Amino acid sequence: MRNLDITTLRSFVTVADAGGVTRAAGFLHLTQSAVSMQLKRLEDLMGVELLDRSGRTIGLTASGEQLLTYARRMVALNDEVVSRLTDQAYEGEIVLGVPHDIVYPAIPQVLKQFHADFPRVKVRLISSYTRALKEMFGRGECDLILTTEITMDPGGDLLDEKPLRWVGAPGGCAWRQTPLRLAFGRQCTFRPHVVEALDLAGLPWDVVVETESDRTIEATVSADLAVHTMIEGTEPPHLERIDHGGALPELPGQMINLYGARVTKNEIQQRLADVLRRAFSKTDSPRLKAV
If you write DSSP's letter for every residue of 195-233 in order, what string do you get? Predict the structure, then answer.
């Protein structure tokens, strides 16, 4: 296995750009003989002539022109990696707020990918309700936040729009009971829209669980003691969408919005915003195209 040396490739690129070994040596802060030896070792390694020394000035052979393209890319990639891992500009902390209901499945992969790209940047994840996150963002306590809501405030970016679904225990029958037993968080933004839909449908309901704990809600619903609503695709394994056949009303769609990306000038925050966009966006969404 033959391995190319970045230092040698850098010398080769500099010679090509400078038009000669002497000038290149000055740019590289090396002696002319040291640069010449590097180029000779590179030619020996590749088994081809890279420099045309027949004229008064040094030029590149066809093989040298071909290698130059790769050498530029390899040197640039080397410099990018070193910069990314050592530059203080890629250090610090970003506070990201995400509603409880959309942490899974996307956010763990977002954090994993961003950490791989920026290992020296800490992302502090805050999981709460949309209303609380927007208040924190307004006070400057979060750099970026995601929200789930049926509208979008000025300055937001629509990432996706998904339907809200009725969920219950696997194979459960709580949805058949009258009045319909509901489990909701006290600050849940879905709740008023669900209640409105039930009232318009003329279905009696009763909130039997009102809590700050999502785990309490999930435990109650998975025990088939109540039903809940969740954004499609975010249901945990111990809950399932209710196949009610129209017995329960259709619910309004929920917008997944991003706030903070339009106002920040921080490059790293913008990069995290880009990862979030890729994780949540749906290019085939008609509503998304119109925004």
Answer: HHHHHHHT--EEEEEEES-HHHHHHHHHTTS-BEEEETT
HSE-CB at 283 with a 13 A cutoff on CA atoms is: 1
Q: Give residue-wise pLDDT tens across range 133-153.
A: 999 999 999 999 999 999 999
Record the tokens describing residue 27, joined without a space. 């740019």
Task: Let me know: does 279 contact 106? Beta carbons within 8 Å.
Answer: yes
Q: Which residue has the tokens 């000055």?
A: 26
Question: Quick check: helix, strand or coil at residue 47?
Answer: coil
In whole angstroms, give the CA distance from residue 163 to residue 231: 6
CB 242 within 8 A of CB 251: no
pLDDT tens digits along 202-259: 999 999 999 989 899 999 999 999 999 999 999 999 999 999 999 999 999 999 999 9
A 10 A CB-CB count for 224 gives: 17
> Rounded CA gap, 4 and 27, in Å?
21
Q: Could you tell me if 146 and 102 are in contact, meaning their C-beta atoms sit under 8 angstroms apart? A: yes
pTM greater than 0.90 (yes/no): no
Domains in the chain with CATH codes: 6-86 (1.10.10.10), 89-159+255-290 (3.40.190.10), 164-252 (3.40.190.10)
252 alpha-carbon distance from chain centroid: 26
Q: Which residue has the tokens 């949309």?
A: 130
User: In whole angstroms, what is the distance from residue 11 CA to residue 45 CA?
Assistant: 15
Q: Helix, strand, coil shares of the chain as percentages rounded to 5? A: 45, 20, 35
